[in-house]
Amino acid sequence: MAATLRNVKQPEDAAMEKKQDEEEEEDKEKQSDKFNLAILLLLYTLQGIPIGLAGSVPMLLQTKKIGYRQQALFSLVSWPFSIKLLWAPIVDSFYSPTLGRRKSWLIPVQYIIGLTMILVSYNIDDLMGGEQGDPPNITILTILFFVFFLCAATQDIAVDGWAITMLSRKNVGHASTCNSVGQTIGYFLGYTVFLALESKEFCNTYLRSEPGDDGIVDMSHFFFFWGIVFTLVTSLVWLFKKEKKEVLPNAIRQDVFAAYKQLLVILKLRPVQAYALFVLTCKIGFAAAENITGLKLVESGLPREKIALIALPMVPIQILLPLVISRAISGPRPMDVFIKAYPFRLIMTLAFSAVVWWTSMHTEGEFSAFYYVILVSAFLLHQVATYSMFVAIMSFHAQVSDPSMGGTYMTLLNTLSNLGGTWTGTCALWLVDVVSFKDCEGVTDLTLDCDTMQELKACTAAGGHCVTHLDGYYVEIAVCFILGVVWYLWQRNGIKKLQGLDGSDWKARGEQ
């Protein structure tokens, strides 16, 4: 009888043991994923630091009265993130088996950022013009931050790939959340926090019991601190974070050339060509407002740290808006939302120009609470329109991308969309001084001009003062608005036709 009972219980015991083993394995997986998610969040946060610093530099330079053509030159630093597809196949295919597929790229580029920050920290203030009022070295600053962006974009490719193998299958979807949240935190630290701590007025008002002559932190110390953090974190990841071994066949490494061939195949598709024209031109209407407004606000007397602090309430909004909008626009026609949001975003460009004009009227330099309410409201409404269009585009990319080509197809479409913003922004900055008319009055030398910092100093030294007869910002706002209206009437039916195409029209039909 006892033997019979034992025989009956044995399968139940085995099932219970198996269930316990599965639960233990699941617990281990959860703990492991929590640790891995923390690492991913940290790496993406580090990625956002140089991006945030690059956003703060134009604000600092604007107070030194540099020309907008110099601002346009510096805007080139952001281009690597828009063209990283050009070297993504190389990062994905070539690596050292000893170091690891992802760490082979992650470790060197983070060391480059960290060590460069430490070395440059000793003369970054001189490059920015120093306290003697010398002109900033825009060329060196552009090269320096271009290297930072190039390394950060390469790190982004490596971390995106590592996330797929670092996380369990059911949690791999959280990698994109780590990306957006981490980059937002990093940008916030490098932009908002830095500009606030660098500001004497902010520190004296909110952080000090006794006024000081400078901010709590200057750029040299900020660079040195984050250079140490980059170097330390990189060393810890290198030594203690193991990477799953991936031995790729030689054929896959050779397929890096096939990846570029695949890109050309996609670009030959008629719908892709029509869509490329669409996304490369759709942001012309917003170029002036979205790339120059912040600089004009600083030029008009609004403290740069105040502009930075406006980003504070925008952080949770930037995180939550895409989630809310993505649920609202789920369906087969996401670009309908894009077409509806476009006119609203275009109208907001006129609202921004009105805010800039209002700011320039505050000659006494004091700004009321009502002013800040209007300013924050304008930025908030603009964010709603911007993210509505962004989520619509991302949803459309996911919808039309050929799954047989992996992520290459969707990444190409995202790259084209990013380029639509970078080239228009650089051009808008470059043209401000071209369409402006400034004159040096009160001097006999009629050759003196006021387009650059040097010319401004020469005018002042000669006993004159610069007068702006025609501000190129308002000229560009008007021209961009008109071009935006024309573009909308031209392309709105075209994108509806592209959206109505059958999925097979977007496929390469075996040509790859």
UniProtKB/TrEMBL annotation:
Domain of life, per the record? Eukaryota
Q: What residue spans carry the Basic and acidic residues bias annotation?
A: 9-21
Tagged with keyword Membrane:
yes
Q: Where in the cell is it found?
A: Membrane
Which residues span the membrane? 37-61, 73-90, 105-124, 136-158, 222-240, 274-295, 307-325, 337-358, 370-396, 408-432, 473-490
Q: Where is this region: Disordered?
A: 1-30
Signal peptide positions on this chain:
none
Q: What is its main location?
A: membrane
Q: Which keywords fit this entry according to its UniProt record?
A: Membrane, Transmembrane, Transmembrane helix
The name this protein goes by in its record: Major facilitator superfamily (MFS) profile domain-containing protein
State the organism of origin: Amphimedon queenslandica
